[in-house]
Structures are given as C-alpha cells and as structure tokens.
Structures
1.
Amino acid sequence: MKIAVLVKEVPDAAVEKRLDPASKRIDRSGEKNLNPFDTHALEAAVQLKEGGAPVEEIVAVTMGPDSSVRTLHKAVSLGANRSIQLTDDALAGSDVNATGYALAKVLESEAPDLVLLGQQSDDGENYTIGAVVADHLQFPSLTQVVDLKLEGNTLTMKRQAEYGYDTVEVDLPAVISVGDALNEPRYPSLKDIMGAKKKPLDTKSAADVGIDAGQVGEAGSKTEVLAINPPPAKEAGELIEDADADVDATVARIVSFLEERKLI
C-alpha cells in the first residue's frame, strides 16, 4: 500500500501575512515552513503504518520553488520515506484549480492507494485542493476527517459536520483531507532531521509528468484576482463602567448591548 501526502510550503506563522500589490499574490518572502495542517496528514499516515496497516511507503509530494525542498525534508523527518518536488516556471501563478490539476498529474505517475492532506493551507486558507485533486483522479474525496480506521480496503471515518459528526465508509483509493483534531503530530528526532536529507527526493518538471502547459500558471487558471483591499478599520469598542455602583443599571446596559447584536 502506498500513501501519498500532499504538503505545502507556507510563510512561517511568526511572519506577518502580506499581499504583494503588484502580483496580487501572497508575499512569500521571509521565513517559510511546512504547512502545519499537513503535519496532521503525515502523522495519520505514520499511525496507519505503525498500527499494522500494510503500508509499504509514504511519499511526500509538493509543488513549489527551490525553497520548498526544505519543506520536503521536514516531511521526511516526520515519517515520509521519500519525497517528490514538482517545480517549473510554467506553474507560477497557478490558482487552486490549476494546482490541483498539476498535483493530480504527479499522483497519476505514483498510483497511490491513499492520498492524505491537511484540511487547509495556512497561507491562503484554502480548503478545496483535495476535492480538485480527487476530481482529476476520479477518486472519492472526504474533508474534515477527525478519526479514521483502515480495515482491508475500506476506510471508516468520522467527519466533522456543522452540528455533529458523520460516519462514512470509503473504499480505496481515495483523497482524504484531515482535520487538526485527528491527532497530535510528533516532533522529529535529531536523528530523523539529520537523516532526512539523505532520503530520496525526486525533482520533476511539468513536462516530466505530462502537464498541459495551457492548464497551469496564470494563463491556465480559471480565477483571477481583480483587486486587493485592506480590511476595514476596527471600530472602537464601548466601555461600560460601573462608576455609580448601580449594578442593576450596569447589567441592564450589558444585556441590552448583547441583545442588539443578537448575541443572547
């Protein structure tokens, strides 16, 4: 059984998120890191293997520039056996549809039994890449999975819904986006960190995996950012003080304030 885990390089959480007004994209200068939501997908893959599932290998897959190699090293230190970097100038500016198509082409060449990824990216807060990949692969897809068990060729999963949980069974192959409540990702050991750079890393171009250049990049994207604007300024809050020691009046004002905003 082969598990592919999709991972992404994102700006480090300590770096203030900024938009580049020229490109209308996220400014990706500064320190970067492995998308923290993807660490839950890696942990899920490792736990399936450690739990006795017949997992022969875990492959970390990313699409990104040269710097994304560090992200793959981090993914390998967390349990992946090898990694694949899809990198090509033609991919720059790809939206979620184009990115999903490109990643699906890599996965087609790998033929995994299970594709795992985090529920969202920490930069664009995008939740849909798993569904796009699944659509191209013609695999079933499930999101917000917070519990999963594998028996034979069937995954039984608990999915977080608006008012509770759905229990769903899916036969493999499948694309599964996991929630951050699924597990607690482990920290890599120093030995794993040092050994990650020695594990196989394949670098592939768009042509290597048969990507149609007309379906990726800005020209191949189906969406376009027309403008970016700063969020509206935050309104000043209202301070309610009990200066006159009239507790009943103060409570009434607080209740009225909350009722006006339909908070109670």
2.
Amino acid sequence: MIMIIMIAVMSALAPPSGVKAYDTPGDGGSSITIEWQLSPDDEDVDGYEIHRSTDNVTFEKVGFVGKGIAQTEDKTKDIERYFYRIAAVRDTARAYSPSHGPFSSSAQWFSTTMWNVLIGFIVSSFFIIFYIYRARKGRSLFIRKIAGLSAVDDAVGRATEMGKPILYSLGLGQIDAIATIASLNIVGEVAKKCAEFETKFLCPTFDPVVYTVSREIVKQSYSTVGKPDRYDPNSVFYLAASSMAYASGICGIMTRERPATNFWIGSFGAESLILAETGAAMGAIQIAGTDNVTQLPFFITACDYTLIGEELYAASAYISKEPLLLGAIKGEDFIKVIIVGLLLVGSVIGLVTKFQILSLFK
C-alpha cells in the first residue's frame, strides 16, 4: 500500500498555472488567444490539452499543443462566452489548472499589425487626390506618348477615306474582368471618333452583359458628339458564347466587310492569333491590347500596335484626357517612383547593416 502511494505521488503532475485568455487582437473576430505558464514538470509531459466550456461545468477538449508551448488560439463564435482550463498530459494522467473566464471574441476595426498598409494607403490617396485636383484646375499633366493610341485618329481617318468600317472586339472577358472594363472605356472614345468622321462602326461581343453595356456606351458616345441620329443599333451586336465560334464569326465579318482598322482590346485566349492573322491578311491596320501575357507575342507579331502591360489600363485616360483619370494615372506613377526608391534604400540598408528591414513590410 505504501509503495502504491509512493508511486502515485512520484507520478503526479504539477498543473500549468497563470492561465489567461483574451480576444485575439487585430483580427476579424472568432478567435480567442489563451496563454499559460508551463507546468514545473514540463520536461516530463507529452503536451497540454485546452479544455473549453460555456457554463464552467462541462468542459470539452478543443486543442492540444506539445510541451514547451504556452500559447494557442481557439476558434470561437463571437456571440458566445467561454471558460478555459489547461491540462498537463502524460500518458493517461491529467493535471488541470483552475478554470478562467468568461471570455468572448469580437471583430476589430483595425489591425495594429497593419500600420504600414495604413501609411501606404494614406500616402497613395494623397498623391492621387493631389494630381486629380491639379488636373481639374487645368494644370498640364505629362503622360508618356503611347504609339498605339496616338494612331487611333489616323486609323479612323484612314477608314473614312477608304469608305470601310472599323471593327472593335472587346475580347472574351466577362464584365468583371479588368481588361474588359479598360476596353469599355476605350470603345466609347473610338465610337466618338467614328461618329465625328461618320465612319461605320462594328462591335461584335462575346458576353451578353458586355454586349448590353457596350451598346449603351456606344450610343452615348454618338449623343455626346451631337450625332445621335448616326447611331446604328445594329453596330453593336451579340455574336457567340463559344470562343472559336466567336473567332469564326469575326473572321467572316472581316472577309465580308473588309474593315480598314481592327481593334483587339480586352481579354483574349487561343483565338487571338486567328483574329490577328486574318486581319493582317485583309490588309487592315490593327491595334491590340490584352492583359493575357501568353497572347501578347501573337498580337505583337501580327498587329501594327500593341498595348503592353499597364498601357491597356492607362489607355482610357490617355484618349479621353478626363481630369479624374489623368490625375489617378499621374498619382499612381508617382507612387511607383516612391516604391522603387524605398526598395533601393531598403536594399542598401539590408546589405550594409544588420537591421531587419523586411520586418517593416510584414
């Protein structure tokens, strides 16, 4: 009997102590952080079990961490209140700490670990608003010349002189694609020039929603230049919902109508080369732009002008000269200069000192 008692005493575990819990800071809620002081027998335990209760009577195991670890996070419901206790575990033995609580979680308005993002947002907003203000005041804002967009007037004029139409494709993207949105901004400006020169305009579309939006944009463009009567409701039309059927349909249009200028601006896939090659064979001036990197080589090879990278997104500001768009583009360019400068300075500091420069950007 004495031996059994001695073995039981020798095998007894000391429980962890100092248990505390709190709402995990800087998160979106649904999380409570639990901390405790390790058991004096930490070297001999298998680990620690985290037990949780909503009534401080019936506990359930919700987690386990290895020895030497004194912190964990528990996934919770924000509307619930919880009690916690920690158990040191060795084989079948358990040594429980007293329960603590209640604790509850909630969503935070701001993450204190994201100050660098807040500072970047404020600085970026300042420069964009500043340049929009300057543009609206009539100040001249320099934007690098984009050859493909500078050729739009010549392309429309050439089509007018030849008595041929202009073909504009917005690609195969949906209405929420960035390239499609950029193309919708451009199609309105191209339609304005067609209205001014009284040039026939053709715009086959791939997506029903894109068709509806582009039709209204083109219609508005004709009204803006004072020629609503020149707008042809059949100039913007739905063609097909299959990529190859769409490409085949456009190739047929090019063969029959023989447009003087083709615009391929938007999101394109494997059909890009078919369209561009057919257009080149028809002898049309072709201006292309897409954010699909794998299709850019085909457009560069077969088209006269290609909008590469951010040129596609800056195109609407470049053509329209709208102060809001120009200011945003100029502000973004200035922010890029600041980012490049910070990268250079950070690289030098990281190379010549032991300061953990990358920790500032986490």
3.
Amino acid sequence: MKKLASTGSNLLPGAFIVLLVVLWEVFIKISGIPKYLLPAPSGIIRALIDSRDVLLLHTKTTVIEASIGYIISIIIAVSVSASMNRWQSVKRTLYPVLVISQTVPIIVLAPLIMIWLGFGMLPKIAIVVLTCFFPIAVSVTEGLETVDEDIISMMKVMGANSWQIFAKVKLPAIMPSFFSGLKIAATYSIMGAVIAEWIGAQSGLGVYMTRAMHSFHTEALFADILIIVLLSIGVFEFINFMGRKIMPWNK
C-alpha cells in the first residue's frame, strides 16, 4: 500500500506537467498567437528534432565546460573548507570574504573574466568554478562544524591520528551536507556554463540561444531551454542517486 502511494505521488507531478503542456498546445491553437512570440509545444519538439545535430554539438560543449568546472570547484571547495576547519584563523579570514563575494552577481563578473582570460574554454570553466564553489564550500564547512567534539576527543584519547579521525568521524558526518551542496552546485554548473557562453563563445547552448534569439527563431530558443532544463534535472538526479548509493543510512 505504501509503495502504491509512493508511486502515485511520483506520477502526480508528471501528470500535472503533461496537463499544462496539453493546455498550452490548445491555447496556442485557439488564440492564434504567432509562433515567434509563443510557439506551441509541438513546434518546439519539431525544432528539437530538426536541429538535433547542431544542438548535440552545442550540448557537448556545454557539458564538457560544466563537468570540468564542477570537478575543479569540488576539489577547491573541499580543500578550503578543510583548511578553515583545521585552522580557525583561516576561517576567520576567508569565510567573510566568501560570503561577501556572493553579493556580486556572476553575470557582472563574467565580462571581466572574459577580458582577463580570453574567449576560449578557460574563462567558461572559471565561471563555472566560481558559480559552484560557494554552495559546496558552505555545505562542507557547516557539516564539519556539526561533528561531535566529544567523539573526536574520545578518538584522540584512544590514540587516533588526524587522518583516522577524519576518515572515521568527520567524513561520515559531513556526507549529507556535502551531497546537499553537490546537488545545488550541479544545477548551477549548467547555468554557469550557459551564462559564460552567452557573454562570448564559439559553441555551446548559450551561443545557440543568442543566435536563436537574434533571428526570432523562438521555437529553437525554447528547444535550447528544454535541453538546459533536462541537463540540470539529469545532473541533479545523478548526484541524488550517488548520494543514496554512498549513504544508504541517510534514506
């Protein structure tokens, strides 16, 4: 019965989305709104199929930029968080700077990064790193703060070294917070790559989006947005799946 109720609750959002799409299609057919203003879902799917080869090339570029930037941001964020947890002076110095840095929108920094690093793949990766770094760093830092000090003291009394305390106590304790940050950053990685491509690039979903917008090819623009949404959901669900596999106790 519980499984049936769970299946029903999972189907409910999908059924609601299908209903919205059907209403959207009917509304366009009845109202006669030009497709350059608001295309019908059937036109978007048609544009997606017609431009699949071009969209695949642009999607590949965006995924590569987002993946590399995401992995680099994880390495830097975990290193910085571990340093702040190990040395309080580092935390007192860096943490306020990290918080203040988030008050500057990435769309403002992106043109500067383009000027400094050029128009190749490097500035796109840098923007993805900047976008993904903060949620991971904050999640890991907050997770490390919640580790029970009594358990750490007991481990020290038992003769455990720093590595053993980290592996046996701190790492399991921060995993839920770590994966929460990873899920947020995963969706940000796609957004960061698209913003970077929008500012200036030769390939990527952001580039395709600007070209579709300038030519009033709204169906292609919506097809591009649909791919971005599916990519974001895909990476989110992948990280969610990995979290369940690595932390079966956290279900």
4.
Amino acid sequence: MAERTGTIHDIGYRGYDGPREGSAALATQLFVTGLRHAFGLGRSGKSKILPFVLLAMCTVPAAILVGVVTITGLSELPVSYASYVNQVQSLIALFAAAQAPVLFSRDLRHRSIVLYLARPLSPSTFALVRWLSLTTALIVFIAGPVLVLYAGALLAGLEVGTQTRALGKALVLVVVLAATLAGLTGLISSYSLRRGFAIVGSVVMLVVVGTLVTIVQAVAQEEGLPEVGLAAGLFSPGSLYYGLADAWDAGVEMFTEPTGAWVVAYAAVSLLVVTGSVLLLVRRFTKAGAR
C-alpha cells in the first residue's frame, strides 16, 4: 500500500455555530433584496438611474399640480387620483418592463437559481416571493406620486373626507394594477432570459397592445358599438384598470362605462391574469430548479 503524502492545511475556516433560521427568514430576506434591487439599491450606480428617473418623471407633474391648486385656490384637484395613475401609465409600464428582468431573468440566465433552490426554499416560494417583491415595488412606484397629490390637496385645504375616500379607491386599484403588471412582466422575463428581449416583449404587451385596445375602443364608440369597446378592454391591463376605476366611480371616464355583467367580467379577468401568471411563474421555476 502506497504511503499517503497529502497534508491538511488549516487556513482559518471556522464552522458556523449560530442559530439556523428556516425558510421564513430566507423568504423575507429574498423579498427585501428583490424590493431593493427593483430600485437599483444594493447594485451599481448605473442601475439606480432608470428607476429613479422614471419615478421623478411620475412625481414631478403631481408636485406641479399641487403647486397650481395651492396658488390658485382651486376647490378640487384638476385630475382625480385614479385618473393620474392612468396619465402616467406609460412610465409605469416602462418601470415594470425594465425592472422585471432584474428579478426574474438574471438568476435563470446565470444558473444561480440552482444555488437558491439548494437551500430550504421551494421553487414555488421563490417565484411567489419574487412576484411579491416586484408587486410591492410597483405599488411604491405608483402610489408615491398619488400620495404627493393627496398631501397637496390637504395642504390646499380641500375637504379631508372626500379626498381620503378618493385616495382609498385609487390605492385599491393601484394594488390590482401592480399585481397584474408584476405577473405579466415577470412571466415574460422568466422566459426571455436576455434582458433586451424581455423589455421589448413587456413593452409590446403593455404599451403597444394597450394603444391598440384604446384605438379599438375609440372606433367602437364612434361607430356606436359600445359592447365591442368593452370587450376589447379585457385584453389590456391598463384598460382593465380604467374600466374598474370607471365602474367604481373613482373619478375616471372610459369610452363606455362597464356596468352589470361587464364589471364582473373586468374583475374576473384581472383576477385570472394575476393568478394565472403566478401559477405559470411557479411552474417555470419548478422546471428550472429540477434541471
């Protein structure tokens, strides 16, 4: 038998003897990290430019409106909270399209998803936490300018109860819109591992399709076919948001206001989009983690 000549060197590694935290702590940390990364925090300086420039572009018009109301003494805001969200919807779509690949593409592209799932974290939990991170980031992004408007309205002396009720409706709608956008852009990004392709795919889905839906609704209204316009509104997250806001009397007016069964249809499609995209995300990460 040959004599062994190998030597074990002690280079200072120490064993970990602290508390072992479970999946909940891991998921919490993953959520916080994802939320920070959606705004470029904890990443390079270049990564912070786009999200904060878009946030500033959404917020500055709200600040200007606050100044106008305060100086001129208007008795109400020139635009409702829900309608303001619709006015900046293109910027919201760009934020979602640009930041979704950060949370859903990079780990798959670099195969680091295998390292994540080597820990006691299931693929379904990973997908849900990533979706929650992007949804929360979108809520912060959308609700920030709305809260600026609300604060300005109170400073201008507008009636508190009326403004608070309108703000409450707008915030509920913001949650629905954020959950929808996070699901769709996350799903596109999880399949388009190249960031550029993911952004283009999300922009086409949110901006191009949304514009086409608006054109169809305008033509349908002009031709006296409101049912066609209402049906077209089911195919875009933006028009779903607008239709629900109009039906809820949140201060917006669609080409044709959804009533009766159409309100149920708009709510059901919104719920279907959110649950369907989340389930597909879970399936995608389960499949990726099994390789």
